[in-house]
Amino acid sequence: MTKVGIPRALLYYQFYPMWRTFFSHLGADVVVSAPTTKSVITTGSSRVVSETCLPVKVFCGHVRSLVGQCDYVFIPSVCSLEKGSHNCSKFMGLPDVIKAVVPNCPPILDPDIDLAKGKRGFYLALYHLSRPFTWNPLKVKAASEAAWQSHLTYRDLMHNQGLVPLQALAQMGLEPEPDFHEPGPATMTIAVIGHPYVLFDEYINHKLIRRLQGMGVRVVTAEMAGEEDLALSLKKLAGRAYWTFEDEIVGAGGHYLERNVDGIISVVAFGCGPDSLMIDLLQRQARKVPTKAYMSLTIDEHTAEAGLVTRLEAYVDMIRRRKNSV
């Protein structure tokens, strides 16, 4: 059986169930790289220039770990997921970057995903993507429909049951159950916003969400909010979406600034141009809502665990004292 490798990085936490279902219905065996480790980051960092952002370094390391384990590696070039928005250049040029920096990389399945050009172009990209497995358009159509249903199930689990992606993947039998604390005895609610590849890779963020839950915090994320709510909040703050995935930061931040949460933590990767613009916009809005404690965390491969934990403890203690003084 043909094996397709999927790196556990970047868009993995948003679309993995859909990707896995699609390739499985085409008769392929899906192989996922192991969770991020120091070796993965070191390997990825050694292949690219130092100015490259941490998520891309991590991605390169994951692709390198798949060499010899699969027949193909799936690395889509995601240009846009809606009309009028643009993706970061790292997503658009990712297949070419990997071809240049990862030696002995298996053949790359690199469809161009640009929904701004309409559905026809997207369907043609899917048919070309399926060529190594089948030439039957009906089989491709059936695989596409099953993949979309899997994606909807994944989104519903996060939105309706308040699960983070790692928990939702476990519910679908795609990941082992994460060791998260139950939010029942939580004494406060904090929204943690950022891109999933930063929030849910527990190695690069030093188990941020798990640590907050251990401090008695109920954590909410963008995935738990409705897509319409995020779009409305994004429109209020930015007018329209310019960057693809902008709702993960600006939309979620604006949404939770208007909700009953005690604080908001934004987490971004150092050196990310689009994120720096979005975080600045959100910080300006947060200053207008003094009742919400706002903190911004910037991480890279040199971020120290002790320093991050100290900041989290001080932030949670500040909110706790504020609540007790009321």
What CATH architecture of the largest domain do you see?
Answer: 3-Layer(aba) Sandwich
Question: If strands are numbered along the chain, what order do they take across the biggest sheet?
Answer: 2-1-3-5
Taking pLDDT < 50 over at least 5 consecutive residues as the criterion, the unreliable ranges are none
> If you compute it from the alpha carbons, what radius of gyration comes out, rounded to the nearest whole angstrom?
20 Å
Number of separate domains: 2
Q: What is the CATH C-level name of the largest domain?
A: Alpha Beta
For the biggest sheet, the summary is: 4 strands, parallel
The number of E-state strands comes to 10
SSE order, as H and E? EHEHHEEHHEEHHHEHHEHHEHEH
Structure description:
Helix 2 (38-47) crosses helix 3 (54-66). This protein folds into 2 domains: 3-157, Rossmann fold (3-Layer(aba) Sandwich), CATH 3.40.50; 179-325, Rossmann fold (3-Layer(aba) Sandwich), CATH 3.40.50. It has 14 helices and 10 strands. It has 326 residues and is of the alpha/beta class.
